[in-house]
Amino acid sequence: MNLRARRWGWVAVALLACVAFAHFCVRIVPADAPAGDPAPVQEAVDRGGALIVPVAGVSPAALTDTFTQARASGARRHDAIDIMAPRGSPVIAVADGRIEKIFWSEAGGRTLYLRSPDRRTLYYYAHLDSYVPGVREGQTVRRGQWIARVGSSGNADPAGPHLHFAVHIMTPDEPWHGGRPVNPYPLLTRAR
């Protein structure tokens, strides 16, 4: 292979690396885009303090903030965090509340929606392996109560079981699928 062909080969490799980096690691935001509103996070903290990590045995230090990561298609943000844990690990209620909805979706698989007593915060649990026997819609649960098990249902990779966990701030009359996503990471890692 001649020198010129080798140089073009290296240029092609460098270009592919740059494209891959931009696709998977860079989120481009227009300069005039509104900044994220920190008020919903503060409202959630004011109403209930720091949340407990929703997977038993996982410490706040083990969490990674994946809230703004692009999904595989790159067309949308994650708007949640993924908590990696062995399949079957206990999933627990992060706060007191009422189970608003138990639902199967193609993307989320087995899901559970827990709503705060004031109906203004919704906690979303997805990719569950199973629910604890007896868990049902309308049931009141306490902070720390075991409600499900970690899995990889829905579009999750079976080789990487995890809990997809999201928090939505909403009005009391909004349906379980409404609300405005806020980053759960600072709520779960906040100093106690």
Care to describe what's here?
Pfam families: Peptidase_M23. This is Peptidoglycan LD-endopeptidase LytH. This protein has 192 residues and is of the alpha+beta class. It has one domain (41-189): Glucose Permease (Domain IIA), CATH 2.70.70. The protein has helices spanning 3-25, 39-48, 185-189, and strands spanning 81-84, 90-92, 97-105, 109-115, 121-131, 140-141, 146-150, 162-169, 180-182. Strands 1, 2, 3, 4, 5, 6, 7, 8 and 9 form a nine-stranded antiparallel sheet that branches.
pLDDT averaged residue by residue:
79
Number of discrete domains: 1
Q: Rg to the nearest angstrom?
A: 20 Å
Structural class: alpha+beta
Per CATH, the superfamily is: Glucose Permease (Domain IIA)
Give the terminus-to-terminus CA distance: 63 Å
Protein name: Peptidoglycan LD-endopeptidase LytH
Cofactor: Zn(2+)
Domain M23ase beta-sheet core: 77-184
Keywords: Hydrolase, Metal-binding, Metalloprotease, Protease, Zinc
Short characterization:
This protein is of the alpha+beta class. It contains three helices and nine strands, in the order ααβββββββββα. The protein has one domain: Glucose Permease (Domain IIA) (Distorted Sandwich).
Keywords:
192 residues, alpha+beta, Glucose Permease (Domain IIA), 9-stranded antiparallel β-sheet, 3 helices, 9 strands, elongated, metalloendopeptidase activity, Cell_wall_metabolism_enzyme, Peptidoglycan LD-endopeptidase LytH
SSE diagram, text form:
Elements: H1 3-25, H2 39-48, E1 81-84, E2 90-92, E3 97-105, E4 109-115, E5 121-131, E6 140-141, E7 146-150, E8 162-169, E9 180-182, H3 185-189
Antiparallel strand pairs: 1-8, 2-7, 3-4, 3-6, 4-5, 5-7, 5-8, 8-9
